[in-house]
C-alpha cells in the first residue's frame, strides 16, 4: 500500500463525537464498484448465517449414492450433487457454503484485531512522542523484518492448529502498517490549533485523545481494517492449503488442499478446485472495491 | 475594436478579441473574454492585473499549452504572419521555444528534479535547436555566463540552487534558442524583494543588450513601473487599458488602473504614500455582470455603466475600456484621494 | 556529515531488527510443545550424536545460557543438523537458496517490466474504457490466492494441455555438469515457466497500480507542462520526464516486493514441488525437522530485512534530491 496522504477532517470542535464517528463510517454508496463489493459481502454474510439451511448436505459426511456406492468424484449434477463430490464422497457445494463461515470469521476478527492494535499503537506513539514513539516505531521495524507467512506457519504449527491461533499470529505481525499510517496522521493532528488549545487549557490526555484525535483516526483505522480482511482470508487459505489449518472447520483453503492432495488437478476436477478459489477472489476483491470507494470518499484527491 | 485604436507600429504579436474558456462541469467560464492588445518588438510589455483576471491564461494561451479543460474559443493571435489560434498543432509545436519561450513563476517546480541543469539546457539545445553535443556544451556555458552563474555549476541539480539562481537558470533556458518572444509569467513573485530586484535588473540588461521582446505577466504594478515599456491592464477577463508605461501609470485613464496605482508602493521613489486597497472582489466569471465589469467596485460608476463600455482612445495608442474615459483627467484628481475609495466600499 | 549519521542510524536499526528477529526465532522454537531438547535432537539419533548435540547447543543448561550459545553458534553460521537429511542445515539451505532466488527474481522482473509499462499506459489512457476495465481486473489478480492460481495453471497447461512439466526443476534422470549448465537448460526453464508465471501474474499488480498513480501525479507537475511548452515531443515528455520521475518509488518497491515474494513462495513452491526454501520450510515444520525449519526461516528473514534496507538505499541513490543533498 502506498502511504496515504493525510486528510483534513475535523472542523467543528463541539460536534457530537458519535455523530461524527457515524459520519466517518459512512459507506461509499455512490461508487458502483464499492456497491458491488458491499453486495458481494451481503451475499456471503447471508450465506454464512444461513449455512445450515442453504447447504444440501453435512460438509463432513461421507456420502453414498442410492445404489450404496461411495459418492466419490462425482461430476456436477450427477446423482443430484449440484457441484459434484470430493474423492472421499463429500458434497462440494455444502463445503463451499460452510467455507464462507470460517472465511468471514477469520477475516473480520483478524481485521478487527489488526485495526485495533495498529490504531492504538499508532495513536500512543504519535500522541506521546519521545521515547514512547521511538520504542513503538522500532517495534514496527522489527515487525517489518519478520517474514509474515512463515511466521504464521510456524506459530500455527507449534501452537494447537486452530482458527484463533492463525488470527493471533496475523495480528502479531500485521499491526505494523496501520500503526505507521495512524502515527503520522496523529502527528499532524497533534500540531493543529485546536489540539494545542485543548492542551494549553489543561484537558487530560485521555479527553484530548477521545474527543479530538480518535474521531479523526477512525476512518483510517476502518480503511486499514478493511484491507486486512482480504489479507486475513488469503492467509488463512494459504495456511489451510499447506495443512496447518484448523482440522475442525471447513474452509476454502482446506477444500483446495483436499483437492490438491487428491489429484483433482490430474483428474481435471475443475468443479472441485475452481469454486473455492473464485469465492476467495470474490470476497477479497469485494474488500478491495469497498476500500477503493472508501478511499475516494475519504481522500477525493487520490481517486482521480 | 478597430485596428487603428491599438496601433503599435509593426507589432511582433497582435492579440485580437481573444477568448479562452474553461469547462467546469457543464458550464464554461470565460477567463479571457475578448482581449486585444499589441506587443511591439524589442521592448518589455507588462500584462498586469489581480489574480484571476486572465493574465496567466493569456500567457499560456500564447503557447497553446493549457489546462486540459481550457480552450481558445475565439479571436486571433497574430505572430510572425501566422494566427497561432488556428495553425495546426504540428506547426505550433515547431514554433514553441524556438520562437516563443517561457519563464515560469516557480523555477523549482518547473525544472525536472532528476536531471542536472546542463541536461535540461542541453535537451532543448539538441532536440529543439539541432545542436550537437559539443556545441550544446559551449552554448550552455555561454548562457550561464549571460545570466551570471558560474558555468561550473552546470552539472548541479535544480534543488542545489537558491531560489534566485534557479530563476536565472530559467531565464538562461528561455534564452537558449534566441526566441523572438519571451513570456515571463510572474518571474519574480516567489522571490524576496532584494533578489527580485537583481533578477529584474538582469532581465532588463539582457533585454536591452539582446534586443529581446518580452511579455511580463505580473500582479505587481511596481514591477511594471520598474522595467516595462508598455502596459496592458487586465480586469475580469478584459483589457481595461493599454498603452505606454508612462501613459498608463503616470496618467491612468481607467478607474481600475488608478486604483491599482494607489494599492502598490512605488518601487522608484522612496516617498511611499498611503496605500489604498480597492475594496471588494472581482466578479465571478462563470456569471459575469452585464455592462462594465468594474462597476461594483468603481467609485465613479454611473447608471450608464450598466451598458457595455466602449473602447475610447484617450491618446494615440492608448485605448481605454470605460464610459468615462474622456473625463479621466478629472477622475484622476479624485482617485488620488483615499476617501474616494473608502466611500465606495 | 548528516549523510554519515543517517547511514549510521540506519545500520544501527538494522542490527536491532536482526537481533530481535533472531531472538523471536529462538523463543518461538522453545514455545513448541514437549521437551525443548526436541528442537535439536531427534529421538532416532544415536546416544553419541545426542550427547554431542547436547554439548554443542548447551541443551542441558538454563535457558539464558542456551540463548547465548545460540547467538554464538549463529555468529559462526552454525545452524545444527537436519533430522531428515542427516546433514548440516547450512549446507541444505545453500543448496536450495539459488532455486528460490531464481524463481523470485525471474517472476518479479517479468512482473515489473509488464507492470511499469502497463501502468504508464493506463495513466496515459486514463478515463478510457481500457482503463475502466483494466483496473478492476488488476485488483482481482491481487485478490487471488497465489497457490490457487498455480493450481489452475497446472491443471490447464500441464495436466490438460501437457505443455509444461508438473513440478520440480528438471526431468527425472536428467544430469547436468554444473550450476550454469542446469540453470540455462531448456529442461530447467520449462519447469520454471509455470511457477514463475504464477508469481508474476500475482505480482504485476503492485508495480502497475503504483506506476499508474505516480504517473497521474507527475503529469500534473509544472516541469511536465514546461516540457510541453518547450515543444519537446510527446515521447520525450511522457517517457523522459513523467515516467522517469514516476519510476523512482516503483524501483524502490521492487526491493520490498522481493521480500514479500519470498513469503508468497512458500505456497507456490509447494504447489509446484519447487525445491526452494519455502517448500523446505513447510516440509520441515510438517515433519518436525526443527533445526531445518529454524534455518530456513532465518534465511528468509535475512533476505526480507536486507531487501528493506536495499529499498531505502535505492531510493536515496536514485533520487538526486537525496544523493546530491
Automatic annotation (TrEMBL), chain A:
Q: Name one GO biological process term.
A: peptide transport
Q: Which InterPro entries match?
A: BP-dependent_transpt_permease, MetI-like, MetI-like_sf, OppC_N
**A single GO cellular-component term on record:** plasma membrane
* ABC transmembrane type-1 domain: residues covered: 100-291
Its membrane topology, per UniProt?
Multi-pass membrane protein
User: Pfam families this protein is in?
Assistant: BPD_transp_1 (PF00528), OppC_N (PF12911)
**Compartmental location:** Cell membrane
UniProt KW keywords? Cell membrane, Membrane, Peptide transport, Protein transport, Transmembrane, Transmembrane helix, Transport
- Which residue ranges does UniProt annotate as crossing the membrane? 33-51, 103-128, 148-175, 213-234, 269-291
Which protein family is it in?
A: Belongs to the binding-protein-dependent transport system permease family.
- Kindly provide the name given to this protein in its UniProt entry: Peptide/nickel transport system permease protein
Organism, by scientific name, is Neorhizobium alkalisoli
TrEMBL record, chain B:
UniProt domain ABC transporter: residue ranges: 15-261
Q: Where in the cell is it found?
A: Cell inner membrane
Q: Which GO terms describe its biological process?
A: peptide transport; transmembrane transport
GO MF annotations in UniProt: ATP binding; ATP hydrolysis activity
Q: What is its main location?
A: membrane
Query: Per its record, how is this protein called by name?
Result: Peptide/nickel transport system ATP-binding protein
Q: What is the recorded membrane topology of this protein?
A: Peripheral membrane protein
Q: Which InterPro entries match?
A: AAA+_ATPase, ABC_Ni/Peptide_Import, ABC_transporter-like_ATP-bd, ABC_transporter-like_CS, Oligopep_ABC_C, P-loop_NTPase
Signal sequence span is none
Family affiliation: Belongs to the ABC transporter superfamily.
Q: Which GO terms describe its cellular component?
A: plasma membrane
UniProtKB/TrEMBL annotation, chain C:
Keyword line: Cell membrane, Membrane, Transmembrane, Transmembrane helix, Transport
Protein name per the record: Peptide/nickel transport system permease protein
Membrane-protein topology? Multi-pass membrane protein
Top-rank taxon of the source lineage equals Bacteria
Q: Which InterPro entries match?
A: BPD_transp_1_N, MetI-like, MetI-like_sf
- Which organism's genome codes for this protein? Neorhizobium alkalisoli
Domain (ABC transmembrane type-1): residue spans on this chain: 97-311
The family database entries (PANTHER family) matched by this protein are listed as: DIPEPTIDE TRANSPORT SYSTEM PERMEASE PROTEIN DPPB-RELATED (PTHR43163:SF6)
Protein location: Cell membrane
Q: Which CDD domains match?
A: TM_PBP2
Amino acid at each position: 500500500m502506498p502511504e496515504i496522504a493525510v486528510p483534513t477532517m475535523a472542523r467543528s470542535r463541539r460536534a457530537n463525537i458519535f455523530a461524527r464517528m457515524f459520519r466517518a463510517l459512512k459507506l461509499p454508496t455512490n461508487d458502483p464498484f464499492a456497491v458491488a463489493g458491499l453486495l458481494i459481502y451481503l451475499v456471503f454474510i447471508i450465506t454464512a448465517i444461513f449455512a445450515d439451511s442453504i447447504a444440501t448436505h453435512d460438509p463432513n459426511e461421507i456420502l453414498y449414492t442410492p445404489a450404496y456406492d461411495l459418492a466419490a468424484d462425482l461430476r456436477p449434477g450427477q446423482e443430484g450433487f449440484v457441484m459434484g463430490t470430493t474423492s472421499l464422497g463429500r458434497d462440494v457445494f455444502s463445503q463451499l457454503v460452510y467455507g464462507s463461515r470460517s472465511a468471514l470469521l477469520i477475516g473480520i476478527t483478524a481485521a478487527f484485531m489488526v485495526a485495533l492494535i495498529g490504531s492504538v499503537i499508532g495513536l500512543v506513539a504519535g500522541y506521546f512522542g519521545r521515547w514512547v514513539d521511538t520504542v513503538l516505531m522500532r517495534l514496527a521495524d522489527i515487525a517489518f523484518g519478520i517474514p509474515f507467512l512463515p511466521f504464521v506457519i510456524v506459530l500455527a504449527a507449534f501452537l494447537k492448529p486452530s482458527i484463533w491461533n492463525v488470527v493471533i499470529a496475523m495480528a502479531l505481525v500485521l499491526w505494523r502498517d496501520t500503526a505507521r499510517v495512524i502515527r503520522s496522521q496523529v502527528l499532524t493532528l497533534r500540531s493543529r490549533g485546536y489540539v494545542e488549545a485543548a492542551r494549553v487549557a489543561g484537558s487530560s490526555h485521555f479527553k484530548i485523545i477521545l474527543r479530538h484525535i480518535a474521531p479523526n483516526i477512525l476512518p483510517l483505522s476502518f480503511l486499514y481494517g478493511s484491507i486486512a480482511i482480504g489479507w486475513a482470508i488469503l492467509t488463512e487459505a494459504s495456511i489451510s492449503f499447506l495443512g496447518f489449518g484448523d482440522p475442525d472447520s471447513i474452509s476454502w483453503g482446506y477444500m483446495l488442499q483436499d483437492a490438491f492432495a487428491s489429484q483433482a488437478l490430474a483428474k481435471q476436477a475443475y468443479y472441485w478446485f475452481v469454486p473455492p478459489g473464485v469465492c476467495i477472489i470474490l470476497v477479497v476483491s469485494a474488500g478491495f472495491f469497498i476500500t477503493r470507494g472508501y478511499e475516494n470518499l475519504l481522500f477525493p484527491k487520490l481517486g482521480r | 475594436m478597430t485596428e487603428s485604436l491599438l496601433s503599435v507600429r509593426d507589432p511582433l504579436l497582435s492579440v485580437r478579441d481573444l477568448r479562452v474558456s474553461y469547462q467546469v462541469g457543464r458550464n464554461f467560464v470565460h477567463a479571457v473574454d475578448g482581449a486585444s492588445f499589441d506587443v511591439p518588438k524589442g521592448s518589455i510589455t507588462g500584462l498586469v492585473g489581480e489574480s484571476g483576471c486572465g493574465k496567466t491564461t493569456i500567457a499560456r494561451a500564447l503557447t497553446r499549452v493549457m489546462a486540459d479543460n481550457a480552450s481558445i474559443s475565439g479571436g486571433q493571435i497574430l505572430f510572425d504572419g501566422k494566427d497561432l489560434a488556428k495553425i495546426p498543432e504540428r506547426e505550433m509545436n515547431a514554433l514553441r521555444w524556438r520562437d516563443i519561450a517561457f519563464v515560469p513563476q516557480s523555477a523549482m517546480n518547473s525544472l525536472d528534479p532528476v536531471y542536472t541543469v546542463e541536461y535540461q539546457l542541453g535537451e532543448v539545445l539538441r532536440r529543439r535547436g539541432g545542436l550537437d553535443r559539443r556545441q550544446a556544451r559551449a552554448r550552455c556555458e555561454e548562457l550561464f555566463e549571460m545570466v551570471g552563474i558560474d558555468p561550473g555549476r552546470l552539472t548541479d541539480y535544480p534543488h542545489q540552487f537558491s531560489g534566485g539562481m534557479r530563476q536565472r537558470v530559467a531565464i538562461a533556458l528561455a534564452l537558449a534558442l534566441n526566441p523572438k518572444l519571451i513570456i515571463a509569467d510572474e518571474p519574480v513573485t516567489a522571490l524576496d524583494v532584494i533578489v527580485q530586484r537583481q533578477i529584474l535588473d538582469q532581465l532588463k540588461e539582457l533585454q536591452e543588450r539582446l534586443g529581446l521582446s518580452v511579455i511580463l505577466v505580473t500582479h505587481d504594478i511596481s514591477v511594471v513601473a520598474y522595467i516595462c515599456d508598455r502596459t496592458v491592464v487586465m480586469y475580469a477577463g478584459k483589457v481595461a487599458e493599454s498603452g505606454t508605461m508612462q501613459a498608463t501609470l503616470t496618467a491612468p485613464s481607467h478607474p481600475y488602473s488608478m486604483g491599482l496605482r494607489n494599492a502598490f508602493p512605488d518601487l522608484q521613489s522612496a516617498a511611499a504614500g498611503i496605500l489604498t486597497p480597492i475594496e471588494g472582489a472581482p466578479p465571478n466569471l462563470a456569471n459575469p455582470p452585464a455592462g462594465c465589469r468594474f462597476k461594483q467596485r468603481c467609485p465613479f460608476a454611473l447608471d450608464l455603466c450598466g451598458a457595455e463600455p466602449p473602447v475610447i482612445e484617450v491618446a494615440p495608442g492608448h485605448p481605454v475600456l470605460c464610459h468615462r474615459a474622456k473625463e479621466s483627467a478629472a477622475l484622476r484628481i479624485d482617485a488620488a484621494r483615499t476617501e474616494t475609495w473608502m466611500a465606495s466600499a | 556529515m548528516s549523510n554519515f549519521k543517517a547511514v549510521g542510524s540506519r545500520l544501527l536499526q538494522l542490527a536491532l531488527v536482526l537481533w530481535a528477529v533472531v531472538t523471536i526465532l529462538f523463543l518461538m522454537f522453545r514455545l513448541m510443545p514437549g521437551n525443548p531438547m526436541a528442537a535439536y535432537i531427534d529421538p532416532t539419533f544415536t546416544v553419541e550424536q545426542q550427547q554431542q548435540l547436547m554439548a554443542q547447543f548447551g541443551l542441558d543448561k538454563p535457558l539464558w545460557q542456551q540463548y547465548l550459545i545460540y547467538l554464538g553458534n549463529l555468529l559462526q553460521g552454525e545452524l545444527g543438523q537436519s533430522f531428515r537429511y542427516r546433514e548440516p542445515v547450512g549446507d541444505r539451505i545453500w543448496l536450495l537458496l539459488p532455486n528460490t532466488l531464481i524463481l523470485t527474481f525471474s517472476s518479479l522482473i517479468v512482473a515489473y517490466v509488464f507492470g511499469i509499462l502497463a501502468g504508464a499506459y493506463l495513466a496515459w489512457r486514463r478515463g478510457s474504457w481500457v482503463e475502466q476495465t483494466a483496473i478492476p481486473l488488476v485488483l482481482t489478480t491481487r485478490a487471488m490466492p497465489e497457490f490457487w492460481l498455480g493450481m489452475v495453471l497446472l491443471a490447464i497447461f500441464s495436466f490438460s494441455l501437457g505443455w509444461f512439466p508438473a513440478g520440480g526443476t528438471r526431468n527425472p534422470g536428467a544430469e547436468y555438469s554444473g550450476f550454469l549448465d542446469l540453470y540455462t537448460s531448456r529442461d530447467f526453464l520449462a519447469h520454471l515457466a509455470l511457477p514463475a508465471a504464477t508469481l508474476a501474474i500475482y505480482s504485476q499488480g503492485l508495480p502497475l497500480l503504483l506506476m499508474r498513480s505516480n504517473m497521474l501525479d507527475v503529469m500534473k507537475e509544472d516541469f511536465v507542462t514546461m516540457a510541453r511548452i518547450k515543444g519537446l515531443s510527446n515521447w520525450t515528455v511522457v517517457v523522459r520526464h513523467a515516467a522517469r520521475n514516476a519510476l523512482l518509488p516503483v524501483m524502490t518497491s521492487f526491493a520490498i516486493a522481493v521480500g514479500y515474494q519470498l513469503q508468497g513462495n512458500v505456497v507456490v513452491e509447494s504447489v509446484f514441488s519447487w525445491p526452494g526454501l519455502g517448500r523446505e520450510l513447510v516440509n520441515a515444520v510438517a515433519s518436525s525437522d526443527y533445526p531445518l525449519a529454524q534455518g530456513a526461516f532465518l534465511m528468509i528473514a535475512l533476505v526480507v530485512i536486507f531487501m528493506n534496507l536495499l529499498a531505502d538505499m535505492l531510493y536515496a541513490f536514485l533520487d538526486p534530491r537525496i544523493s546530491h543533498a
